[in-house]
Amino acid sequence: MILTKPWPAGKKWVVHAILGSIFLTLVLLALFIYKSIDQELTNIALMRRASVVNLAAATLSEKFARLLDIGVSLATRVRFRQLVAEGQWADAMVILRDVPRDLPVVDRVFLANAEGTLMADFPALAGARGQNFAYRDWYKGVSLGWRPFVSPVYTRASAPRLNVFAVAVPIAKEGGGVAGILVLQVQLNSTFFAWTNDIDAGPEGVAYIVDQNGQVAFHSKSAVRGEIADFSAMPVAQQVWQQAQQGKEGVHVAVDPARKEETIFAYAAAESSGWSVVTQQPGRASPGLLARDHQLRRLLFGYGLLLLLSISMAYLAYRMVVQRRQAGEDHQIKSELERRVVERTAQLEAANQELEAFSYSVSHDLRGPLRSMDGFSLVLIEDYGDRLDDEGKDALQRIRAASQRMGWLIDDLLRLSQVTRAALNVKRVDLSAMAREIADAIHREQPGRSVEWAIDPGLSVSADPALMRIAMQNLLQNAWKFTGRTERTVIRVGALERDAQRVHFVADNGVGFDMAHAGSLFGAFQRLHHVGDFPGTGIGLTIVRRIIHRHGGEIWAEAKEGEGATFFFNVKASEHGSDEQDHPVG
Hints:
Layout: H1 9-75, H2 78-85, H3 89-95, H4 99-102, E1 108-112, E2 118-122, H5 137-145, E3 149-150, E4 154-155, E5 163-172, E6 178-187, E7 206-210, E8 216-219, H6 238-245, E9 250-256, E10 261-269, E11 276-282, H7 287-308, H8 312-384, H9 390-421, E12 427-430, H10 431-445, E13 451-455, E14 460-463, H11 465-481, E15 489-498, E16 501-508, H12 540-550, E17 555-559, E18 565-569
Parallel strand pairs: 13-15
Antiparallel strand pairs: 1-2, 1-6, 3-5, 4-5, 5-6, 7-8, 7-11, 9-10, 10-11, 12-14, 15-16, 16-18, 17-18
Helix pairs in contact: 1-7, 1-8, 2-3, 8-9, 9-12, 10-11, 11-12
């Protein structure tokens, strides 16, 4: 029998102390890991709330910016400003009568003088004219620095007493000072807030839009009617409101005293307006927090097993490290995706704003005056030509020519916008046949010129036939135009291999250009030759570049003054998953 010598009491105390220290260290480490994972999972769960409210705040900022731009555009019309400065309020309002029809979000338009007295309105409300509204927030805001201002919500003074907010824009005098104020009034329940139906407040969640005074302008669960609710007066919302008023954004978790449950508030301020977007959701209804609690319960279960099975500690720690690392990677990937979505959304919104402004300008501010200029000039020439001297007739002809050229320019601008928005329908295009058809059409329009067309056979690309025809037509017409002074004109269409790529080209032996100016060749309205020598709008090559870029390709030019120019382009539409067909299209 082998007898084991018992440990001395002192050594047992040391062993117990060491084991106790290890156990306490493990407990503290487990508690620290638990708290860290709790915080990290909570942040991940709340991240979606923050993303939704930030996107909504950005959209609200864009909507306000568009309203302000419209107001400034209306207030800076020359004739309108003159009428207001002369005190002809009714005549000035006639100019704005179509605003509520053209802009459905605007419920009412009115004009006030610099002291805040309403001078004209449409639709007119009984008893409104002559009232002074200097006490209103819209007047206080716009008169503070005489800058455009988005007001808080308020109840309209005249019947029907609707809840509205106003966009106030000062109308400047020509010599300085303020002649009056243009006010666009928007109902809270109008189409202005239609986009808010897409705000994802989550299960049992509510979305608010709150003005700079803390009043609720929009509530996703009910229409804002009657008395306007004060969001900032809610005890649980006070901290959220204070943060939003400071221009901050984030997520706040608090206990709602009315429901006595954990509530998630996400908030973000709309840029420059003082308005904010807030979402509120019970914590028990948040899928992210439910998933967090589920994960934490699993973690506690693992710790229970850890007390019974010490060997599982290493494996569990390993799993924790892996999960935390994966959560960090997921967070990084999600952040990058959200950044790209925000950038792309901003680009699309900017493009849409540009197209909408362009279309409005073309339809309302450009075509009508141009037609009037051309028509009245023709009337003067035909009916009063015998009373005008040669200088007067020449001036009228110049007016007609300028207005017609402006009309062509508008047509080219519209064509440019259509090229930008048209959907691609990619097929196999017989470029040789298409070039011959365009060349024949150009020659039929100007049969007096002798031009040698050298079009290589067998040229084809994968592209949208309609857009490619526009591009080729512009390139061939460009070559035709700039060879107009060449005795023996040769225009060639062909292809070659360059840098392992198939590159097509259109070449001519015309006037060419200095390569030092090649950088501005494809810009809108950029011309390298005087319009009197070679007429045109300066949009054609811009349209060509837009079409080639939409097909994933590039276009560039090589030229020399007096020796012609060559335009090279490649098309990569088939490399972007386009629906390429088997049969060529000419």
